[in-house]
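Suppose you are handed a protein chain with no further information: no name, no annotation, nothing but its sequence. What can you learn? This example shows the usual starting point.
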Amino acid sequence: GNSALAGQAISLLLTALVVAAGVQAGIERLSRWALPLLFLLLVALAIWAGTLPGAMDGYRTFLLRWDGRQLLNITTIRNAFSQAFFSIGTGIGSIMAYAAYLNRRAPVPQEAVAVVGLDTAVGLLAGMLTFPVVISFGLGDAVSESTIGTIFLALPTGLASIGETGQIVALAFFSLAYLAAITSSVSLLEVPVASLMDGLNWSRSKATWISAAVIFVLGLPAAADLEVLGAMDALFGGVLLIAGGLLIAVLMGWVVPRRFLDDLKDSEVTTPATSGLILFFLRWVSPVVISAGLVISVVDLLRNWTYAAPG
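A reasonable first move is to predict its three-dimensional structure. Written in structure tokens, the prediction is:
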């Protein structure tokens, strides 16, 4: 309890300091060296994990196992939606907050593809690192009890087998992973901060510290109790996140399509055909798919919570 509270306070403080410093001075500086280093370390560790005796079993059991029934499992669909929306920051507005700082001529469609491509690559690399270790060191039971901390179980166990070098690598990995997590929380805090600066003409520092204080108080129940954290994650990180994505698609496709198309026109590489295709998806595909994901998520959550309720 206390360590979770301390972790929350320190992480929020670091996040607020970076956001208060501004996008270029704070966010870019932190991301520029920490994230490439983490990516390189992840590649190296994934290669190392591939040499473990249980590597092929790990890939077969977890990473490359095809189970067609999961396509109709509503919990799997809910998890896929919330993972996708959280991972690229769509439904929270963080990707839009960052987009506001892009050069007007930035190739938006290409950058969107690069973000999603890199995000998927990192997810696969994490799987290629984690699952061979899970099989090689017999961590299957521990992982099946709680998937939340899989990498926190697998990596220290695996690296402990190579002595002091392993401990140093584990320390480096988790330090960099922590910095990567801070860059995620930075992108989230930037959303209310940018809104308060635009809407109420607050200074960056005032908007940052007031937002951080409010978030700290709202986060206290989750830091004190894992069950509350799970419920808040399912509600905010699932249902409301997907609803946010739906609202953004409707806003861009139906409410301000002219402004959206004008922004794309400034980008040198976006042809009218590309813009038309993006608008078609935003109007007719995204709202339908996201609405289906939203309904499935709400139904699954209510079903789970009803089963979990006593009596």
